[in-house]
């Protein structure tokens, strides 16, 4: 079966309970090396390069892309999708040249369950979760992108009429094309971040039986995994990423995989407000200023490179200097025990390991992490709107979205509780070791 030159081999798109559409095997499928069950030609792959090629064919879109695009592959693809939305309701009055994507966007769901498309009262259910801050930042960023698009495209006569005088484009449309992109984008080795029609109908499973790849002809193939046993009527699935946290899955795809065996939470870290070196630390540390906690088989462990820099002070041996670089400019450099360690900013856990106060530093680290997690736990424990709140109408809430919010709250609460308990035990042990070490030094 061919759809716009995409070739299906014994699989078809069918509705699946609670999942929307998916790919279903039409007969028992055998794993044959290099034989795909779905082949998508390069002309259907929507990448930044494809957007550039489209701009060469359409003068009006080229004008829009020149004025408002070239920020990132994502932004260019969103502009293209927005134009397809404008094309859809006006088949007899084309704004730009139609493409296979003009028809394909009609098949895409206008109610993607990602939180950026939730109602405000549904988003309030995420209060206290790790997703709350990230979601607020994303909503603000999308609004800023849209305002900038409106400002710049309003100066283009053609697009001012097509977008704004017509009243066809609204902020909610920008939310929607971003949701399409975020929930469907594939990272292809040759084309980079891309949307691939038909393959984007493959749902996620931790026990995926298929995978995608791009060949030397830039075709995107869906192939069965070695050892897969796919019977007639079985769903053909891929993995969206086994390392993603529940918050990341909900943010990007609009669901939480209930079968996850590894659970995690990532929280932002900020320098302590009374730290005179705080701004310098935040400026020079180029890695993620976060703490990530992972739970595997009921046991939790945390990782954070930034926290080891956070706890160090000038009297410990930490320093900053503004020096001249090779180009004559000035740059901030970081020093530890008078040694320039700017290129080792993420290795302070190792750098402090031989210091005589190493145990003290680790105790500080433990306390900073404990306080950050307790702060998150306190926020997560605050009352949220529920059935007992007369101002909150649960009848106006999508039950699936509410269930996902509750699942995220439960997962993150359990992870935080276990980690806080572990840190309390470590703090008690570390405090005893530090006191013993100090006593021994005094005796000697």
From TrEMBL:
GO annotation, cellular component aspect: nucleus
GO MF annotations, alphabetized: protein-lysine N-methyltransferase activity
Gene3D superfamilies: set domain protein methyltransferase, domain 1
PROSITE patterns (UniProt xref): SET (PS50280)
Pfam families: SET
Transmembrane region(s): none
Record SUPFAM superfamilies: SET domain (SSF82199)
Domain of life of the native organism: Eukaryota
Ranges where the SET domain occurs: 9-241
Name of this protein: SET domain-containing protein
Source taxonomy: Eukaryota, Fungi, Dikarya, Ascomycota, Pezizomycotina
């Amino acid at each position: 079966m061919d759809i716009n030159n995409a070739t299906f081999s014994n699989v078809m798109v069918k509705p699946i309970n609670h999942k929307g559409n998916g790919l279903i095997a039409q007969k028992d499928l055998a794993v044959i090396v290099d034989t795909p069950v779905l082949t998508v030609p390069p002309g259907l792959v929507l990448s930044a390069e494809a957007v550039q090629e489209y701009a060469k064919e359409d003068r009006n879109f080229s004008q829009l892309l020149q004025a408002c695009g070239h920020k990132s592959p994502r932004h260019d693809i969103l502009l293209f999708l927005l134009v397809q939305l404008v094309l859809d309701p006006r088949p007899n009055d084309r704004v730009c040249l139609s493409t296979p994507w003009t028809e394909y966007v009609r098949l895409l769901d206008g109610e993607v369950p990602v939180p950026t498309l939730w109602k405000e009262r549904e988003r309030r259910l995420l209060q206290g979760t790790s997703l709350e801050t990230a979601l607020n930042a994303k909503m603000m960023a999308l609004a800023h992108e849209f305002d900038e698009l409106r400002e710049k495209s309003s100066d283009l006569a053609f697009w001012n009429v097509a977008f704004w005088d017509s009243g066809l484009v609204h902020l909610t449309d920008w939310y929607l094309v971003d949701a399409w992109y975020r929930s469907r984008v594939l990272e292809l080795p040759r084309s980079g971040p891309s949307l691939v029609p038909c393959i984007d109908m493959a749902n996620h499973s931790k026990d995926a039986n298929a995978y995608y790849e791009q060949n030397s002809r830039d075709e995107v193939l869906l192939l069965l995994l070695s050892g897969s046993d796919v019977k007639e009527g079985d769903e053909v699935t891929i993995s969206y990423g086994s390392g993603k946290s529940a918050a990341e899955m909900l943010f990007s795809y609009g669901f939480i995989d209930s079968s996850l065996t590894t659970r995690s939470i990532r929280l932002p870290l900020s320098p302590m407000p009374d730290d005179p070196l705080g701004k310098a630390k935040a400026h020079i540390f180029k890695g993620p200023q976060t703490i990530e906690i992972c739970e595997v088989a009921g046991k939790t462990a945390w990782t954070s490179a930034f926290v080891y820099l956070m706890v160090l002070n000038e009297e410990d041996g930490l320093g900053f200097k503004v020096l001249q670089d090779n180009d004559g400019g000035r740059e901030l450099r970081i020093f530890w025990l008078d040694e320039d360690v700017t290129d080792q900013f993420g290795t302070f856990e190792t750098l402090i390991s031989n210091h005589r106060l190493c145990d003290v530093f680790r105790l500080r680290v433990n306390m900073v992490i404990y306080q950050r997690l307790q702060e998150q736990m306190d926020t997560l424990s605050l009352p949220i709107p529920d059935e007992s709140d007369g101002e909150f109408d649960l009848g106006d809430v999508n039950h699936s979205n509410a269930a996902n919010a509750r699942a995220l709250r439960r997962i993150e609460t359990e992870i935080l509780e276990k980690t806080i308990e572990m840190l309390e035990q470590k703090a008690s042990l570390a405090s005893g070791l530090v006191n013993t070490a100090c006593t021994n030094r005094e005796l000697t």
